[in-house]
Amino acid sequence: VKSERRGYGLRIYWDALIKDYKRTQLKGFAYKIIYYETPERIPEEHQKSDLCGVCRKELLPQLTNHITILNCGHLFHWQCLKREP
C-alpha cells in the first residue's frame, strides 16, 4: 500500500504503456514499405542482385517472392518481413 502511494504502481503501469506504444510504432514503421510484385516495377537504383537482410538469399534477378523496400532503402522478401519472431 505504501509503495502505491509513492507512485510505484503508476510507474509500472506507465512503463508497460510506453513499451507497448514503442512496439506498436515500430510495427507501423516496418509496414510502411513499398511493395513490388514484378521486377519491372522496382526502381532502377534497386535493380541489382542483392541479398535479403533476413534470410540472406538472393532477391534478384529471379523474382520468386514479392520484394519490399523499406523507407531506408533496404530490400527484403515480403514473407521474411511478415514472419513473427
Outline the secondary-structure elements.
Layout: H1 2-5, H2 8-31, E1 34-36, E2 67-69, E3 75-77, H3 78-82
Antiparallel strand pairs: 1-2, 2-3
Describe the structure.
The protein is of the alpha+beta class and 85 residues long. The chain has 2 domains: 1-30; 33-85, 2-Layer Sandwich (Herpes Virus-1), CATH 3.30.40. It is 39% helix and 11% strand. It contains 3 helices and 3 strands. Strands 1-2-3 form a 3-stranded antiparallel beta sheet. The longest helix is centred in the first third of the chain and has 24 residues, at 8-31. The mean pLDDT is 69. It comes from Diversispora eburnea. InterPro entries: Znf_RING/FYVE/PHD. This is 9956_t:CDS:1.
Total DSSP helices? 3
* Name of the top-level CATH class of the largest domain: Alpha Beta
Tally of domains: 2
Instruction: Kindly provide the radius of gyration, computed on alpha-carbon positions and rounded to a whole number of angstroms.
Output: 20 Å
The number of strands is: 3
What share of the residues does DSSP label as strand, in percent?
Answer: 5-15%
CATH architecture name of the largest domain: 2-Layer Sandwich
Strand order of the largest sheet: 1-2-3
Separation of termini?
Answer: 38 Å
Which spans of ≥5 residues are poorly predicted at pLDDT below 50?
Answer: none
Helix content: 25-40%
Helix vs. strand class: alpha+beta
Order of helical and strand elements:
HHEEEH
The mean pLDDT is 69
Instruction: Kindly report the CATH topology of the largest domain.
Output: Herpes Virus-1
Tell me, briefly, the overall form: rod-shaped
Largest sheet: 3 strands, antiparallel
Organism: Diversispora eburnea
InterPro entries: Znf_RING/FYVE/PHD
Protein name: 9956_t:CDS:1
